[in-house]
Amino acid sequence: MNRLSLKERFQLSRFFSGEKAVDEPVKLTHRRIFILPTYRGINFAILTALLLLMAFVYNNNLVYLLTFLLASIFFITILHSYKALAGLVLQKGQSKPVFAGEAAGFTIYINNPVDVERFNLQIKLQQPESLTIKPQSKTCLTLYSLTQKRGWHTAGTVTLSSTYPFGLFRVWSPVRFNLKALVYPKPSLQERPFPEMPSTTVNKGFSQKGADDFYGLKSYQPGDSIKHIHWKAFAKGQGLFSKQ
């Protein structure tokens, strides 16, 4: 395990984008797990504080009892929320090539090595997916990321989160893998007719012009040799030309 410096530990990007991208499996520990109260949790804390104030003003023992009960539930929930992710092991899988504009699929394995079932989990790359992991089991998911251009498309940050058990806290862990998919150029939807075959004279090896040095380009004419077609211009959609 690589140790982080004090400056790296408090970088804001670490809470959302995770640490450096890795190849090996990642075990979720206290270093990678973050927790904050949800909107429901904040309202719960405000209600508890108001009850404590009422108990102090009216010196009511029953209200004191209710306040301390709710406060204990609030703080114990922090521990259970943390255990919802603690100990899980994430591992990268494979990815298949796609065409530009399609969604690239990235395989992620989640291993639960303990005898505790993990409820109400949510994993997200671009679109969130909900799951529950059985004890001593391994789950395989394929997460999708929309591609824009050809080349290598990286998976980005995979975020595993949970609001178990009462929705008072959201616990999450952002993880980055060295996982990428190859994106091919998008096939053209325009159907272009293939140029007509040259004349019989050209097929026999006789050229109409008889020049080997490149002079320029001209519009393609039926009968021009296929060897003289400027294929690069044709592929770019600029038209059909012959080399002179």
Fold topology:
Blueprint: H1 6-9, H2 14-17, E1 26-27, E2 34-37, H3 39-58, H4 61-83, E3 89-95, E4 98-99, E5 103-112, E6 118-124, E7 128-133, E8 137-146, E9 151-154, E10 157-162, E11 169-176, E12 180-184, H5 200-203, E13 217-219, H6 231-235, E14 241-243
Parallel strand pairs: 4-12
Antiparallel strand pairs: 1-3, 2-11, 3-5, 5-8, 6-7, 6-10, 9-12, 10-11, 13-14
Helix pairs in contact: 3-4
Shape: elongated
Instruction: Give me the side-by-side strand order of the main sheet.
Output: 2-11-10-6-7
- The N- and C-terminal alpha carbons lie at a distance of 65 Å
Task: Please state the CA-atom Rg, rounded to the nearest Å.
Answer: 31 Å
Unreliable spans are 200-209
Number of H- or I-type helical stretches: 6
Mean pLDDT, all residues: 83
The helix content is 10-25%
Structural class: alpha+beta
Question: Tags for this entry?
Answer:
single chain, 244 residues, 5-stranded antiparallel beta sheet, 4-stranded antiparallel beta sheet, 25% helix
Task: Describe this entry's structure for a reader.
This protein is an alpha+beta fold and 244 residues long. The chain contains 6 helices and 14 strands. The chain is elongated. The N and C termini lie far apart (65 Å).
In summary, what is this structure?
With 244 residues, the protein is α+β, with helices and mostly antiparallel strands. It has 6 helices and 14 strands. Helices cover 25% and strands 32% of the residues.
